């Protein structure tokens, strides 16, 4: 059985939950490392004051004993501390007493660029909140927790994954300040690199096996990501073949890495390099034109506390997504009910292909 991830949770509901199945038994999971990634996700210039309300922390309900996985489903919880302001508005059961706190009035002003309008149409909802609560990127918190567990598994075989925001508008303090002043938002680009990945993760056998396709789907699965590049990506399209590929030298070493570590849908032993482009966030303090779904009249879109830029947070979320997909691909290649089986299979494989090249 390979790794599977199921998540649930609304932005202002009681908690976010994730169930990770298929982890080998005996993997050491460090709470401090998971919490450190949760903190990283909350940082970055341009985040909303919500990040001060939430100090995310992982709780484990099942699958772990004394810091080691049991080989059974691992159940993670990240509580929404902000829920205390929404106990009536986001009550899972019909609430008792007078409406109080946030979320008591239906939202009828869909935001362009968000899931609001198509969400209420698709699911026949009277309150846009019923769509936006899950569409919100808040639940990326629990994906980051899962990614931290995936990174622990990858570290067992010497793979490290790291995401950074590139110096684009949304990661630049002056640009963020200017956008905030104009009550506007920004996007940007993040890059994730994975080192120590042996050749042969993923496969050319079927379209859905391809590592590049899997990484692209994982990155595009993150809210507001509108483009993905592998290696030199679109820049390669302007080159001649003689300038675009990575020649193979003595010891099977490459002299360049334009392919971003993936050829034929498989890792090729070079560093994996992927980028994700984020659109400017859709909730504007200077709202765009919309229509009130109750009256049918022209109106301004919903204004709700929101980030100016979340590019640095995206770097952490994208790192987690890449880590999860690489862990799946590694688990597929090396199997392992127990962590020792997984590491042992990796060692035998590395020996067979004499990797890393010396
Ligand atoms: C880490 C992160 C934080 C985000 N924060 C916000 C936010 O504060 N306000 C907002 O309008 N959108 C935010 N978004 C983007 C929206 O969730 C996203 O644009 C929306 O769900 C619509 O999906 P789409 O952009 O993929 O079409 C964030 C996205 C990420 C990855």
Helical fraction equals 25-40%
Distance between the termini: 34 Å
Q: What's the multimeric state?
A: single chain
State the helix count: 10
- Could you describe the largest sheet, including whether it forms a barrel? 4 strands, antiparallel
Present as ligands are: flavin mononucleotide
Order of helices and strands: EEHHEEEEHHHEHEHEHEEEEEHH
Task: Give the mean pLDDT.
Answer: 96
Computed structural class: alpha+beta
Strand segment count: 14
What value does the Rg take, in angstroms? 22 Å
State the low-pLDDT regions, or none: none
Q: What shape does the CA trace take?
A: globular
The strand order across the widest sheet is: 1-2-6-3
Strand content: 15-25%
Question: Can you give a write-up of this model?
Answer:
The chain is of the alpha+beta class and about 350 residues long. It is about 30% helix and about 20% strand. The chain is built from 10 helices and 14 strands. The protein has helices at about 30-40, 50-55, 115-125, 130-135, 140-155, 175-180, 210-220, 240-245, 310-335, 340-350; strands at about 5-10, 15-20, 60, 65, 70, 75-80, 160-165, 190-195, 225-230, 260-265, 265, 270-280, 290, 300. It has a 4-stranded antiparallel beta sheet. A 4-stranded antiparallel beta sheet has the order 7-8-12-9. A two-stranded antiparallel sheet has the order 4-5. A hairpin with a 2-residue loop joins β4 (about 65) and β5 (about 70). The longest helix has 24 residues, at about 310-335. The radius of gyration is 22 Å and the shape is globular. It starts with a strand and ends in a 6-residue tail after the last helix. The model has no long low-confidence stretch (mean pLDDT about 95).
